[in-house]
Design a protein that fits this description.
Chain B: It comes from Nocardioides oleivorans. The complex is a heterodimer of chains A (286) and B (479). Chain A is α/β, with parallel strands linked by helices. Helix content of chain A is 43%, strand content 18%. In chain A, strand 1 and strand 2 form a beta hairpin. The chains are: A alpha/beta (286), B alpha/beta (479).
Chain lengths: 286, 479
């Protein structure tokens, strides 16, 4: 008699925990051929708000860490992901129906992207900050600081896409609430498991699975969210609506970019989008 | 009784400025009549009507945008950075040459003291053009690419009419963009004088277009489909409306909005210097400053001492004729703004804060408000939360650095903050923990073209000034 396999229940990732949706709802995720793979949590407005609370609570500690330490933590995520690569490849092949070679390419790229961004943590200040030679006896320095809590609508291509939008936001000290790819949410939650065991403090990354149209408007209008990344929004009308809602508290908005080549090396702009420049003045004298 | 130390009047001459009875719009290098109605601009110190100014209609704005697009496509974006730089240097030089004229006109139209327009505004305006002129042929070193955006629609406020014009126009032109700029309806005159300066510099027609008008004209610029970039300085409320209006478009936006800055005084601060900083922080330009230090947070142990020194210093402020070189505090810019300051001050009293105004005689004509301080203010008071945009200071106290940080950060704004202490490590730790775009330590209200300025949170996004200020006008190296 063959062994009965143990099937996984995919839940949300909020504040370092893996709760079910408070709404008790889930949705069916099929594989590429249309047969059931698993159920994923269908996050509600309340889940989104809980995730923002967790992200806000984590912000002070995370942004207050040294850049060196944040670099190490993000690098650690890459290390743990490297060790679990087969699982991700298998999940991606099953849910997206892609070839083994392609799955390997994406997992490689996701790991390498984490390593790339990890290295930026303690360099971005030097690249985008500077001393200003003001015309007067003042010491004057401009340095970047994180914007705060960032809502991110992740693009399709759940592992590489997710890593590509989350890593730049957190490596600079922000905390995030991510809406995972609606169609392929499973690897996003598995990535949450990786992050939960990678020294990343609870709440720095929060992953919601469910529908963009249901959750995103609450994040876009949330007064304790400082920025929103609309990368994964493909519905133009929804993107416009979210951007308008983001104006309620002047969130920093990254507009959708449907034609992104996720395998190409990203520039700085995903990091600088959610950075503020702080300029400090002090008189020079005796 | 007249004090033997009383200052004799020292009025600056108005003769250097020639104000025309009416002004048109500056479009495509020429002054043209607008198709809309006209409105009056008044001297807020005397309520004298200064000139009739055209209110640009949608059609006028469209003409200006077309002129800017033509100039962008045919001339300005094709010109080498080195050549663009020379025009900007020319403008900077003419501003210096005509500095007195500009300062006097600014004080007449705005109500600010001549010593500020002469010694602060105009020199920094010239410095902005000099600074960005030098960037025009060095953009590739700045890290944002060297591709301009196109036509920039710019809307500026009445508190620093010329300075805000310089902050908007200098970087836009240096990066190869052309502009349509709308000055505020109560202070259009120096922008129109600047238009003459553009003519004098032989700036190609259409590179700079100035359209006057009120909110409707501003909306027409911001929502014009052929405007690629929107830059706005003004109220948070209007900033939010602009952010909504550009949603779903490709327009790039920078917003410099309101503030409610905390000016934090620790017990080890040099108190006389701190008092000067407090006065400069809130009474500079009648408190019409988005980064004004409008919330004084003073450590409890020195609160009484600071208050008595502050009141003594406030009693020496000379309020009156903006053109008098001895004047410290000039006129409130408009009747509307005066009404708003009065309303919020009355609310402050009604909510239980204690009001004290400097004893001074206010002129009978014009819009005036005596420098005022409220004590016994709590974080819940509206005068501690809302931007008054006038010479009104709210005083709160704190015991520990953490409490000061907590109170300072407890607003939706995040534009600026001040810290006064003798302890270097405390300055640095406070500077790290304050959520604001500019931190002035043991100084306040300092500006320089090389230094980025802009807010966190609801104080807006983007930076103006410095290398960072170029980013707002370029496509970006990554895109």
């Amino acid at each position: 008699m063959s062994r009965i396999d143990v099937r996984k229940t995919y839940k949300l990732y909020i504040g370092g925990q893996f709760p079910r949706s408070e709404s008790g709802r889930s949705y069916v995720v099929n594989d590429a051929k249309g047969t059931l793979l698993a159920n994923a949590s269908l996050a509600s407005r309340k889940d989104a708000r809980d995730a923002v609370v967790a992200a806000r609570a984590a912000f002070g500690g995370w942004s207050g860490r040294t850049a060196y330490n944040r670099a190490q933590v993000v690098y650690r995520v890459a290390e743990v992901l490297e060790g679990r690569r087969e699982q991700f490849e298998a999940e991606m092949r099953a849910s997206e129906g892609i070839s083994a070679a392609r799955a390997r390419t994406y997992v490689d790229a996701a790991i390498d992207r984490l390593v790339w961004y990890a290295g930026w943590a303690d360099k971005i200040t030097q690249v985008v900050g500077n001393a200003n030679p003001v015309a007067g006896p003042y010491f004057n320095l401009s340095t970047p600081e994180p914007s705060g809590v960032i809502a991110v609508v992740a693009p399709a291509g759940p592992l590489l896409g997710l890593v590509s939008v989350v890593a730049p936001a957190i490596v600079t000290g922000n905390t995030v609430v991510v809406i995972a790819s609606e169609q392929h949410p499973l690897t996003s939650i598995t990535l949450g498991e990786v992050m939960a065991t990678s020294d990343l403090p609870g709440g720095v990354v929060n992953v919601l699975t469910g529908t963009q149209a249901e959750i995103a408007p609450w994040l876009a209008s949330h007064m304790d969210v400082n920025g929103i990344d609309l990368t994964g929004i493909t519905d133009e009308a929804l993107a416009t609506e979210l951007e308008a809602a983001a104006a309620d508290n002047l969130k920093r908005v990254r507009r959708p970019a449907p034609d992104t080549d996720w395998l190409a090396e990203p520039g700085l702009d995903r990091m600088t989008q959610f950075l503020e420049t702080k300029t400090v003045w002090h008189p020079i004298g005796v | 009784m007249t004090s033997p130390f009383e200052y004799a009047p020292a009025p600056e001459s108005r003769a250097v400025v020639d104000i025309k009875p009416s002004y048109g719009l500056f479009v495509n290098g020429e002054f043209v009549d607008g198709s809309g109605t006209s409105f009056k601009t008044v001297n807020p110190a005397t309520e004298e009507v200064l000139a009739e100014v055209a209110e640009a209609s949608d059609a006028d704005v469209d003409e200006a945008v077309k002129a800017a697009r033509r100039a962008y496509t045919r001339v300005w974006s094709r010109m080498s950075g080195a050549e663009r730089a020379k025009y900007l240097y020319r403008i900077a030089r003419i501003i210096q040459e005509r500095g007195r004229e500009l300062a006097v006109l600014e004080s007449i139209d705005n109500g600010k003291p001549i010593k500020e327009s002469r010694d602060v505004d105009v020199p920094i305006v010239a410095a902005h053009f000099f600074y960005y002129a030098g960037w025009a042929d060095k953009l590739k070193y700045a890290g944002y690419g060297d591709t301009p955006l196109g036509v920039a629609g710019q809307v500026i406020p009445w508190n620093f009419p010329l300075l805000m014009l310089a902050w908007k126009i200098a970087p836009a032109l240096a990066c190869g963009n052309t502009v349509v700029l709308k000055p505020a309806e109560t202070t259009p005159l120096t922008a129109l004088l600047f238009a003459e300066i553009c003519q004098q510099a032989d700036l190609p027609p259409g590179v700079v277009n100035i359209v006057t008008g009120a909110g409707a004209t501003g909306r027409a610029i911001v929502s014009h489909p052929d405007v690629d970039k929107v830059a706005f300085t003004g109220s948070t409320e209007v900033g939010k409306a602009i952010a909504r209006a550009v949603a779903g478009t490709d327009k790039k936006v920078t917003l410099e909005l309101g503030g409610k800055a905390a000016n934090i005084v620790f017990d080890d601060a040099p108190l006389d210097q701190a008092v000067e900083g407090i006065v400069n922080g809130i009474f500079f330009n009648q408190g019409h400053v988005c980064c004004a230090g409008s919330r004084l947070l003073v450590q409890e142990s020195v609160a009484d001492e600071v208050m008595s020194r502050l009141k003594r210093r406030m009693a020496t402020l000379r309020v009156g004729d903006p053109l008098d070189k001895n004047t410290d505090v000039g006129a409130i810019n408009s009747a509307e703004q005066l009404a708003k300051i009065r309303e919020l001050s009355e609310i402050g009293e009604a909510e239980g804060a204690e009001r004290w105004s400097a004893p001074c005689e206010l002129p009978s004509n014009g819009y005036w408000f005596a420098p005022t301080v409220f004590t016994g203010v709590t974080q819940a008071h509206r005068i501690a939360r809302e931007e008054i945009f006038g010479p009104v200071l709210s005083v709160l106290t704190f015991r520990t650095p953490s409490e000061a940080v907590e109170k300072a950060n407890n607003t939706p704004f995040g534009l600026s903050a001040g810290v006064w202490t003798d302890k270097g490590s405390r300055i640095l730790s406070m500077a790290n923990r304050l959520r604001a775009g500019v931190i002035w330590a043991n100084t306040f209200n300092k500006f320089d073209p090389t230094s980025p300025f802009g807010g966190y949170k609801e104080s807006g996004y983007g930076r103006e000034g410095g290398r960072h200020g170029l980013e707002a006008y370029l496509k970006g190296a990554d895109n």
